[in-house]
Structure formats: structure tokens, C-alpha cells
Amino acid sequence: MNLYLSHRSALMFWRAWSASRAISLRAFHDLRKTDGSLFPGRLYGATAALRTCASSDEDVRNLLCHVADSEVKAWMRACLEEEGALVHVLVERGEGTRNSHKIVRHRSALVYPRGAFIGVAPHLFICSPELVFVQMAASLSFGELLALGYELCGCYPLDRPDGAALVRRPLTSPARLAAFCAQMEKARCVKVARVAARQVRAKSGSPMETELAIAAFTSVQRGGLGVEPASLNAPIALSRAARRATGLNRVVGDFYWREARFLIEYDGREAHASEHRRAHDSRKHDALAMDGIELMTVTAPQFRNVTQSIALLDNAARRIGKPKRKRKQGHLQKHMALRAQARRYHRESLSQKDGGHGLGA
């Protein structure tokens, strides 16, 4: 008998997994779009088969209790504590057991793509991050679904008592999300998931970077500003002269348009930054100026002010040679709704306070 964790329980599991398998800040900055070696689908065996599903409370409880791997037990504990011991499981259609106050059963007769279920322990399968994205499309608004996609493809920072600069391991990529959604048929809300997957960008370094990216890069039809997408948290090699003058080998930009040589930095830090931080920022700005890269900074107060942030991002669109598209009447309301949805996702799902700053260096 096999247990298939799904929906929110699977999401909570992968969050715990990605935090426990953290990577260094430098490794995050050096990630390439095509590098899938860090993803769970590459580290465990996977299957498309949904068979011999545990569905009764007793079977689910027994399988959870008999997981031998200590790491998997820790991830399961974090998952269940987050969900208040509520377990979402996937079962084959026709299973007769009703939902209980402990277990939510999602019945399915779908044909799943390859790699839909990842085996992390004997008889224990977790719905893949890509499948979780499709599943959650039925319960999230479009802005919330985008925020989930950015989270799955991003590397959010970890609060470490030792001060180590570590970030959560990415769980998938926009290309993998889009490919998986394209293969799903007849899944509830899969069309919305397909649209959202095509608009997710890789390598967001914080929830606030995600919210800025959603506001800027999402299509106008969906309430975004339709700005040409940038590379997120991309290392920028410096010239020899800039390296010699500043002592920096490279800088990392939050949102970088390489061809236009234009960079946006999100700054959500408190006004009184440390002297070391101010000195580093000054050297970074000098290096960019020497290499002819224009820098625009968007602060947390500016982003919260919808009028100011739209003006700044429209100016960025003109700077990179892609002026804003004409927006129909009522777009502002759609834009504000999109931003509110992404914000709600972070507030309710990640318990993020307003503020925060990117992971550029």
C-alpha cells in the first residue's frame, strides 16, 4: 500500500525539504536556468503511477508512523505541524472512505505525466512541485498562483542564528512548470495553471522581489504592466578597470536587462543601514557606473505607492526600449487586485512582514 501526499500537505513537505537542503548565496547567484540537478525530481525516484493508495485513517497513520528515514520524518513533522495535523492525500477514484477531521482525500482518475509522484521513502510518495502547482490552481487566485510559482522556482533567504548566508533550494523551474502543465489533461483549472506557468520567472530572492516581478512582468491582460522580463539575481561580470577601482569581482542585480545594460534594485531595508553595507553599495554603484550600466532603485515605500511604482516601472520599460502597451479602462483596478493577491499569498502562506530586501551583492 502506498501513501501519496498531495495539495497543501505536499507543498508544506517541499518547503521543509528545500529549507533543510539549503544552498549558499553564491551557489544561488550562479544557478543557471537549465541546471536541474538541485531539484527533488532529480534526486529521488519518480513515477506517474497512482496505485494501491492508502485511504483509510488507519492506513495513512500507519504509513506515516513507519517512515524509517530520520530526514523524511523531520520533513513530515514540519509539514504536519504547519497544517495542524491535517493530511491531504491523493487516492484513486472509487475509494469509498469519506473525508475525516484529520484527512482530506482527493480522488483522481487522471493520467499523470512522467515524474508526477516522487518517492522519498518506501511506500511514501509526494506529489511533485509541478503537480502541486496544478493542484493549487483550483484554490488560489491568479496572483496567488503566480506567487506560488515564483516561490517554487525561487530561493528565499533563511533566518539562521549563525548568520550564514543560505537560501532555500529551488524546487523546479518555469520551463519544467510549463512543460508539466502542457502534459496535464482534464485537470481542474489546468488552463489557468498553463497561463500562469508561462509568466513565472526563475530565481526570485525574496517575497518582495516576487511581488515586484509580478506587478512588472505579468501580462497587461492579467493586470500586470507588461514590462519586458528581466533576468533575476543575475551575476554581472565587471571590467578590469571597475574591478581595480572598486575591489569587486562582480555584482549581482535583482532585475537586469543585459542588452539594455539597465538594472533595477529593490531596497526594502531600514533607512539606517550599517556602515559596511553603505560602503559596499557605494562601491557597487561606482562599478556599475564605470561599466555603463544604469541603476534604478525601487524602495519599499515607492513600491507600496501604486502610482509611484507604475511610473517607475513604465520609465524602466522606456529605458529598455519596450515602451508600455496601451492599457484599457479598468486596468488599474486589475493591477491593484493582482498585487493584493500576491501580497495575500505571502501574508497568509509565508507569514512575511512587509519590507525585506533582495539578495543581490
Automatic annotation (TrEMBL):
<feature type="compositionally biased region" description="Basic and acidic residues">
    <location>
        <begin position="347"/>
        <end position="361"/>
    </location>
</feature>
<protein>
    <recommendedName>
        <fullName>DUF559 domain-containing protein</fullName>
    </recommendedName>
</protein>
<feature type="region of interest" description="Disordered">
    <location>
        <begin position="342"/>
        <end position="361"/>
    </location>
</feature>
